[in-house]
Design goal:
2 domains; 20 helices; Four Helix Bundle (Hemerythrin (Met), subunit A); mainly alpha; globular; Hypothetical protein af1432
Length: about 425
């Protein structure tokens, strides 16, 4: 059934059946160990639009060059063969697939895709995966199968989209409807284009549930893209808050890659500002600053609602503990909740820090004219939110270190819960202030 679906897509959209000839030659030259920078430059010069884009990129502020680069040969030498290939692929796919019509909001889609691409590159750099450019390309293309399925099955995909935003699993819904999913559809397209096999495999496995200890080299790129997808805050669709099992999957993949919690936190803190930079020099439209700030505010308070719901569950569990006095089991449950809380709050904090950097960057570049002091006020609100979240995290950490004898009457739990509730109330007041 899957092959019939792919044939239908290619029949409906012949324009995406193959890459432009110039790009095919670019990929061929870049994978040929005997090719030189001059060979790649000669191929690129066949495409005036690609030539102009690469010259814009190499001379952009992102690279901070003092002397202008005026030839493609200089550009290839400056950026490197793999970087030039990644830029060419990104530009070509963005333009080619961008022609497909559908109801998926394109800015939101590319915002998520670029965030996963950027996270993939940062993870690859951190764990020593090379070339990092391949991680970026695989991340950028990981969800391309969504656009393929939607292009040929618009009404069905619109229905599936509504189910997913209501809490259904996207892959399960796609598999039920077509016998395949967007990850496999994306892998099929990359193979159809003749891109390196491991890129397609990374795209095809970006939703795979990896087991602890799966560390073979051929699984490095799939796990990098998989983890980057879990790190992404901007989503192509409005998804429910993450479940505890998703946090466990993220933890397993990070461990398999040898990524420490500290390194993971650093990547999350830098991610949004890096996405803004990447979108600027690759000329990928992900929305203006105001859109990003609105999305950031929505994400922040979805995290807040998640923490509040988890706290309610904690209260129910505490009552059950008091009833049956199952001290050991109760302690393990509380500790599991504390871990889940910590992950969620760390994610929320990383989101807030990233958005604060985003505001600062936009103001410094003159992209935001803060005549009424809105941005300054927002930054203050965000800072207070970070402080409150940090206090919540400190309280939650106490749960994970309880002595079983200390919770015999539940008072210690209630004391911590009271402190957390107070901080959540402060966050709620921050929410009101942010919206004013």
């Amino acid at each position: 059934m899957a092959q019939e679906i792919y044939n239908r897509i290619l029949s409906d959209h012949a324009e995406i059946a193959s890459l432009p000839q110039v790009l095919i030659e670019v990929v061929k030259v870049s994978t040929d160990s005997d090719s030189s920078a001059s060979d790649l430059a000669r191929v690129i010069l066949k495409d005036p639009a690609l030539t102009a884009k690469l010259l814009r990129v190499v001379n952009s502020p992102y690279y901070g060059r003092v002397r202008e680069v005026t030839t493609i040969n200089q550009a290839v030498v400056t950026l490197g063969v793999r970087s030039v290939t990644a830029i060419a692929l990104s530009a070509s796919v963005y333009e080619t697939v961008g022609k497909l019509k559908g109801t998926i909001e394109r800015k939101r889609f590319w915002r998520h895709s670029l965030e996963v691409a950027t996270a993939s590159k940062l993870i690859a750099q951190n764990v020593g995966f090379k070339p990092v450019e391949e991680a970026f390309v695989a991340g950028l293309l990981h969800d391309i199968g969504m656009l393929l399925l939607e292009a040929s099955f618009a009404e069905e995909y619109k229905r599936i989209w509504r189910l997913v935003e209501a809490g259904e699993n996207l892959l399960e819904a796609e598999q039920h409807n077509w016998g395949t999913d967007h990850a496999r559809a994306g892998q099929f397209l990359l193979d159809q284009w003749g891109l390196p096999k491991h890129l397609g495999e990374a795209v095809g496995q970006h939703h795979r549930v990896f087991d602890h200890g799966e560390k073979s080299p051929e699984l490095s790129l799939p796990q990098i893209v998989n983890l980057a997808n879990h790190l992404s805050k901007f989503r192509a669709y409005l998804m429910p808050p993450p479940e505890a099992k998703i946090l466990e999957i993220k933890d397993v993949v990070a461990s398999n890659l040898g990524l420490t919690n500290s390194s993971l936190a650093d990547i999350e803190a830098d991610l949004i500002s890096e996405v803004v930079k990447e979108s600027g020099f690759l000329e990928i439209e992900i929305g203006d600053i105001e859109e990003l700030l609105r999305e950031a505010n929505r994400l922040l308070y979805r995290q807040y609602e998640t923490v509040e719901n988890l706290l309610r569950e904690n209260r129910k569990m505490q009552q059950q503990i008091a009833h049956d006095q199952a001290m050991k089991g109760a302690l393990e449950s509380l500790q599991a909740i504390a871990v889940a809380f910590s992950y969620l709050i760390n994610n929320a904090t990383a989101t807030i820090v990233g958005r604060t950097q985003l505001i600062d960057l936009a103001v410094s570049k003159g992209q935001i004219i803060d005549t009424e002091g809105v941005c300054l006020a927002s930054s203050g609100v965000i800072t207070r939110a970070v402080e409150n979240i940090s206090h919540i995290l400190d309280e939650l950490k106490k749960i994970a270190t309880f002595d079983p004898g200390a919770i015999s009457d539940g008072r210690a739990v209630r004391d911590i819960e009271a402190e957390v509730q107070a901080r959540l109330a402060e966050l709620e007041s921050t929410k009101v202030s942010f919206h004013k």
